[in-house]
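User: I'm putting together notes for a lab meeting next week and I want to include a structural view of one of the chains we've been expressing. I don't have a solved structure, so I'd like a prediction I can at least talk through. The sequence is below, exactly as it appears in our construct file.
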Amino acid sequence: MNRIALILALALLAPAVAALEDPKQMGGLDATVEMSWSIAMPADMPPTLNVEATVYGFNTNDKQQVLYENTQPEAVITPSLRGDRYWEFDLGRPGPSTTVRFGTLTQLRTSYSGVQVDSPTLPLTDPDQTALNGTEFTRPNAEIAAKAAELAGNSSDELEVIAALTEWVHNSITYDKNYWPNTKTVSAAEVWRDRRGVCGHYAHLLIAMLLSRGIPARTVGGFVYSGEEWAPHAWVEAQTNDGWIEVDPTYNEVGILDASHLRFATGADYSQILEEITVRGPQYDPSGLVLQPHFSINVTDSRPFPALVDLRIDAPREVSAGERALVNATLTNLAGRDLVMPLDLNPSHELSTQDFANRLVRLRPGENRTVEWQLLIPADLASGYTYSFPVEVRTLGRGLEITLEAHSGRVIASPQARIAEVFGGPGAVSVKVTNTGNVPVTAIAQVTINGQSRGIPVALAPGDSRTLQVPVTGATRAIGAVSLELDGTFVDQKSFDVDVSALASPATSTPTEAAIVPPGVFNTDVLYLAAAVAVFVLGLGLLGILALSRRRAG
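Assistant: Thanks for the context. Below is the predicted structure for the 554-residue chain, given as structure tokens.
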């Protein structure tokens, strides 16, 4: 028996173009997938040689259901240890100079919106041990590991770490179709170096970053709708304490994917997603046999996402030429479970931003979080005109649009300030405040830590940032919230739960602004000061009594 393993050359398939809605709005769909293959037999092939082919079939899991399947000719299904399904076709003895054809027809139903975790009790199987250590294409080098450590910070929240790494890969790699021919055999180190590629490259780099943080990961193969056409696609599965979750760095989705993801295979890396041709009979080298695949996908029904989140946008309606306009998008979790939601900024092409346009937001049940972007308004606007710049913000199942009205020749005062970051350090909580408007401001940071509150004024010039350090004594963790007040109006708020122990990562900051003491803990400095003031007041009182006595005596 001779066998040739063919790397699944899905990039060469003829994709079916379909007029579908935005995939980010598809929470579920029904689709019919027709796949066919042909093998041209060479003239020197022995007539008694038996040919067999093994190809992938779609499987049923908690996100995808096989409603119907058929093959031509009849084939046998064989499951793999990873849960994949193979169709094994016995093509008989086709003989020399002939072409043999075979195919499958599958009806699928997908929905990624109803679940977050796949098979929480599924252990790593023997073939997946490489998901712990990596392969030649997914093994992290020192630079990849260092970047992953920087992005993960001190977080022990797996979903938060996975989201941070995925967001970085999505925004830092340029999608380039010229990289299609070697999509399966490029290493993570090469992707790190080139910062370009297609889905397989995105997957290999993300897997390497996840492995460097101790998170097992592997590649998933299938199809996806890009918004323009159906195409072969690779994404990632990462194993958390609750099980495997699906992650797509190309489309910036974690846990909940859009329903156009049609899954059929897994591998430690993309090169392991294989098809095989086997020949039985006289000694013959099958390397000259070429397996030509084709596919067609027809969507028969699609369903929207349920109400996973509430989305709100806040931005100035009027801006001036050359100004940096602040756009805020707030997501509120309505799903009653942990979510990681994409948040994509799509501004008019005349506007630019130095921030990541596509973000991932980790949300606990009921939590709301705000993401901000600074958009640069063109400085060369003609005088006397009003310009309208549409700005769209989208997430799964939701999208909103606002319009920025820009003017030239006059500056519109726009006082704005935001809490850029809250983080812990040894014995202190640090609050970074930024002036995001175009005029100087004095904001009040209302900081509440472990039940104690204090207001701290901070003056900022346009574009400036200042970090306020708030010491905490007698506690190793600081839990609370920061509210920012501007001109009597609360403009921003962030909650926090940070490490302030001696082992916490130190933070660079301005001198101490205020001290907040946890309930039930005495601050000795405050105690000494209070005692000194009491002694001073008592002394003044005794002197006053003595003087009064002398006057009365005289």
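A couple of points you could mention at the meeting. The domain at 2-304 is CATH 3.10.620.30 (C8orf32 fold). The two ends are 128 Å apart (CA to CA).

User: Perfect, that's what I needed.
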